[in-house]
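Pilot study result, target chain (223 residues):
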Amino acid sequence: MAWGSHGATAFATFMILCPTCFGLGILFSLFPYDYPILWNPAACPPEAYVRLENHLKFLHASPLIIPRILHTVIGTGLLGFFIKLYRPSESNMLFDGASLVLYMCGVIIYLANIVKGLRVVTSGVYDRELVEGELAVGVKGVEAGAEEFLGRDDSLKVMAASNTILALVLVGVLVLQAGQWYAERKEGQEVESHRARKEKTANGESKGEERNKHKSPNSKKKI
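Predicted structure:
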């Protein structure tokens, strides 16, 4: 069969790598906004926070088709993992299992930090509390169990740090997938080498048997 388990696995790997690289591309486009806030050795200018805040507001106000495309891409990566982990081998369990854990960590970071941060930045409501998912009134002294937001600058730093952590997680997925490819390639080379040695040994034995069959009768000892 031209399309076997190897072809399905290769296509599933393609389904994983494309969303991962897509996400890294998005994060790279955000890096010019995050760099002055997180990695600039000098004091961060106030304009950097304004640029990042305006950019995040613009992203959150994008048409509905943009997040739908993004969520479809994320779902494609998950589908690729499910295909590869259907009846998994030892290699799949090790590399793809660890890759899926990292991928899910990335999804959690996206939902818990980035999506929530975009809503906060768009609303402009910093230093307020969120009670059971709804904004409560007041800045201090709200009910027990309320979750307190950070200030504006700290919230933007958390957003920038979340992008960096998410980028590292996605790079980890790529490294694990590359490690799986390398391990399978080395295993295939060893199998081929072992098979070639066996064939060479079998050919040598068959040639030896042929020589013994065609030995001259004069070579026998005379009585």
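One observation from the pilot: The radius of gyration is 30 Å. A full batch analysis is planned for the follow-on phase.
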